[in-house]
Amino acid sequence: MNSTQTLSVWGGFKKEAPAALGRTGASVQTNTSTNSEQPLFQDLSQAQWKKMLPDLGDASPEIAILHVDPKTEATQLLIRTPKALHVRQHWHSANETHTMISGKATFACEGNRVELGPGGFNYMPARMVHEAWTTPGSVVFITVDGPWDVNWVEGPPTSADVIQ
Known about the structure:
single chain, mainly beta, globular
């Protein structure tokens, strides 16, 4: 692997990454931790969307952190992409799942490429390098069984990764 950049919650949510590792976005407080012994109900219209890569302007994917377990920091979140985007190779410290809500995404890892549409699901073990290509307007539900982080293999997406 080449140099790795880490975000402790992509786009600057949740907690600060060590300065030496680099990160994008500004810190934003979220009110998503709840007592895990209490139910949580939220309509999609209540999601608080934040730009993940502000330098991409209107093409930036957006993230909505839905819940963070106060003990384990396991996280459930949504990501939507207003424009088609190549999400460069990266990995997470925790196991990750993706469930497509709308649109399509092609996921690649270990020489395999699989396209998922609405209802499609995958599981990525912790530290597995993967990348994705999303369609405009796609929404994916993501879970991680530990703190949410993104560790870029060769840096985060740039305007060159926006698919016209």
